[in-house]
Amino acid sequence: MFLISDLVSLLEGYLDQKQVSQIYEAYLFSAEAHDGQHRLTGEPYIYHPIEVARILAEMRIDHTTIMAALLHDVLEDTNHTEQELADRFGQDVTELVDGVSKLTRMHMESPQHAQAENFRKMMLAMTRDIRVILIKLADRLHNMRTLDGMRPEKRRRIARETLEIHVPIAHRLGMNKITMELRELGFSNLYPMRSRVLAEAVSQAHGNRKEILETIEVSIRRHLLETNIEAKISGRKKHLYSLYKKMRDQHLPFREIYDVYAFRIIVPTIEDCYQALGIVHSIYKPVPGKFKDYIAIPKANGYQSLHTVLFGPHGVPVEIQIRTQEMHTISEEGIAAHWDYKNDNPDSNHSATVSGTEKRARQWLQDLLDLQKNAGNSMEFLESVKIDLFPDEVYIFTPKGKIMEFPRGATALDFAYRIHTEVGTHAVAARINRKPASLSAPLFNGQTVEITTSPDSLPQPGWLKFVTTGKARSNIRHYLKNLQQSEAVRLGEKLLLKALSNHNISRKRFKKMGLTPVLEKLQLNNLEALYNEIGMGQRMAELVAGNIIQCCTKSSDSAGNQPKLKGKGLLWNPLSVLSPILRRRGKNHDQRPLMIRGTEGMVVHFAKCCHPIPGDPIIGHISSGKGLVIHRHNCKNVANLRNQPEQWISVEWSDKSQRNLPAEIRVTVANKRGVLATIAATISEMDSNIDNVIVDDQDGHTNAITFTLRVTDRKHLATIIRNIKKLRPVRNIQRING
Q1: Residues with Cβ < 8 Å from 671, sequence gap 6 or more?
Q2: What pLDDT is recorded for position 377?
Q3: Which CATH number covers residue 8?
């Protein structure tokens, strides 16, 4: 059992006596606070904070963090207050303890939301002070080591949370030692039977391969000594969870996954790394395409090493990692190895001299803050950050030669947003290796990318389909959310004014009305919120107009007071208002319809079932959450809506319609070579683009080809149809009505 005396001995190896004394004082306070408390394992509770402090001390963490580790459960599990801690141990220690405590105070409506909120809190705590997350990771590691006293279902829940949240964070911070242990403990508690079976298989296989391991190691060691390179060589242990994931993801048997011999070579200098690489390549032939230089281009978490795979004795694969001792320390401890805890300000002079690992971590923490500002909720934040936590890196060059890493599958638009939010917002196109490319073009290792921008270019909803990074996704969503709201407000105002005009209430008269009683009854803060709900289809404009008429159209008194409410205000029967509205609607055919231009934006949608285009008779349907949906008048789906007249409004195309909209045509043709190309060329000659083509073989002699093409109006479509009809293989052509 690890006691306080053992912790003190460990601390005296790297801290001065005054700091050790302050830590011991924190221990005494924590021991007294937790006196009488026991863990599920039966041991006194104080053993847990001591073990958490030990994990951090083994990484040589600063004394303030060690004190906070000993006190990390005091606020949560005892009656002591923040003020007591601040008076006794100072503000720095207290803020760390409070930061850790807040990560466990959560009451969410579902496990998924709880996990997402937990994740968000951990990320934000990390951006404020990295030490909070170091304590939390050490706390989770000791809890995972002592799960035996818990019920199986609770062990599985904690194990799954550890694998999904704590492991990715530890990995992203480069803390390989903690990452690996958390993975193994998570695996053994989540899948105890699979873990046991795999462990037995590994133990048996290790005995069978001992001789060949020794042969490879002796050969490498002898060749390195011949060139006077001092090296530590060790066989790399195969971790059970890594083996399990490879077997599961690649659908491979244990023998094929485990039949790889892995070694790590640690040498004094970077030059020795490359020299050692040449030596091992001279002993065994390298496997093509398996060499990776993470020294020249470190991983996103700061990891550096040379990786290569060789054809070993009898053709067995041999994995080799070559690195310096400093690289190895950073690999094991990550951000904890060199982080300057006394200077956690990225804007300070210190930032010019920090290690590469720390610079990357600071940049990532800043990106987390940007994601949080733009994320709508915890689930969205979790989705965005998880993308960045599981990258299979691709390394891209800027035109000036700077290297940037991206998750595999990232596109040119992801690159644009990484450069700057404004570059992404106004991106038009890209140049990849000096050749023109679209914003959706995927990026591959070693490419040089530059972005073309225009002030007129703005984010489109379709961009979300091909970006992969959290920063790009959250910024696009944030922009579209604000855009949608402003468009909904404009549409809602139009719809309400139109509904009021049906009652001979002009815009000028409406603006003079006192709407406070209406807004209070609808539980809305202002008129803009009312417009937004109408525009998004969450309230019917006719019903709101009925509310306003009942509440606010009584004549003002002679003193010019606001109109008085009648009776109980909004406690009215909607049908009593709708009936005269609908009767009037039936009689007054001359009421002006809402004009549609086709460029209204995100709250006016054109139905995909019938593809209305300018010139078609149309009808507008108010759909909750979408806004206004435009259908063709003869669309089959509109028939059902005619029984709900309160949900549709009269609309017409404006003379200024200025957008190419999709239309569908079906062409029956003779089954001959080149027909599709001929029709496509004709459509292109008519200044139209094809969005989609579906070919349906009818009877072996004829094909039915459905085209979705872009047209400006009915006249444009009619011209295209006439020209296609003239083609010899065409038997029949018609527009699809939905």
Answers
A1: 697, 700, 701, 702, 703
A2: 61
A3: 1.10.3210.10
Q: What is the CATH number of the domain that holds 249?
A: 3.30.460.10
Shared-domain flag, residues 19 and 153:
yes
Q: Give the pLDDT score at 269.
A: 94
718/738 Cα distance (integer angstroms): 18
Low-confidence ranges of the chain (pLDDT < 70): 1, 102-128, 207-208, 258-259, 335-393, 537, 552-592, 597-603, 624-626, 640-647, 656-658, 738
Residue 312 structural domain: 209-333
Asked if residues 229 and 267 have their Cβ atoms less than 8 Å apart, the reply is yes
Indicate if 125 and 106 belong to the same structural domain.
yes
SS3 content of the chain, % helix, strand, coil (to 5): 50, 15, 30
Share of the chain above pLDDT 90, in %: 31
pLDDT attached to residue 334: 74
How many C-beta atoms surround the C-beta of residue 14 within 10 A?
13
Q: DSSP per residue over 220-254, as a string?
A: HHHHHHHTT---EEEEPPPPHHHHHHHHHHHT--H
Cα 372 from Cα 388, distance rounded (Å): 14
Residue at 646 is within a domain: yes
Residue 113: what pLDDT?
60
Catalytic residue among 62, 77, 383, 405: 77
In this structure, the answer to whether residues 634 and 706 fall within a common structural domain is no
Find out whether 258 and 243 touch, Cβ atoms under 8 Å. Answer: yes
- Same structural domain, 584 and 642: no
Cβ atoms of 391 and 445 within 8 Å: the answer is no
Compute the distance between CA of residue 244 and CA of residue 89 in angstroms, rounded to an integer. 46
The count of domains in the chain is 5
Please tell me the predicted confidence (pLDDT) of residue 107: 40
361 exposure class (CB count in 10 Å sphere: 0-12, 13-18, 19+):
buried
What was the pLDDT predicted at 119? 62
Contacts of 731 (CB under 8 A, 6+ apart): 668, 669, 670, 702
Residue type for 282, please? S
Q: Is 139 a catalytic residue?
A: no
Q: Both 51 and 170 in a single domain?
A: yes
Q: Which of 76, 293, 340, 370 is catalytic?
A: 76
User: What angle separates helix 47-57 from helix 63-71, to the nearest 10 degrees?
Assistant: 160
115: number of Cβ within 10 Å: 20
pTM exceeds 0.70, yes or no: no
159 and 78 in one domain? yes
**How high is the pLDDT of residue 121?**
63
Assigned domain for 459 exists: no
* 605-626 core/surface letters (b: 16 or more CB in 10 A; e: else): ebbeebbbbbbbebbbbbeeee
Which among 18, 359, 421, 37 has a CA at the least distance from the CA of 174?
359
pLDDT of residue 106: 42
Q: Helices 470-501 and 412-419, interaxial angle, to 10°? A: 90
**Within a domain: 458:** no
Residues 219 and 186 in one domain: no
Q: Which residue has the tokens 């001995």?
A: 9
Helix (H, G, I), strand (E, B) or coil at 314: helix
Is beta strand 690-697 parallel, antiparallel or unpaired with respect to 661-670?
unpaired
> Largest Cα–Cα distance in the chain?
109
The answer on 543 and 629 residing in a single domain is no
Cα torsion angle, 261, 262, 268, 271, sign = positive
Q: Are 646 and 543 in contact (CB under 8 A)?
A: yes
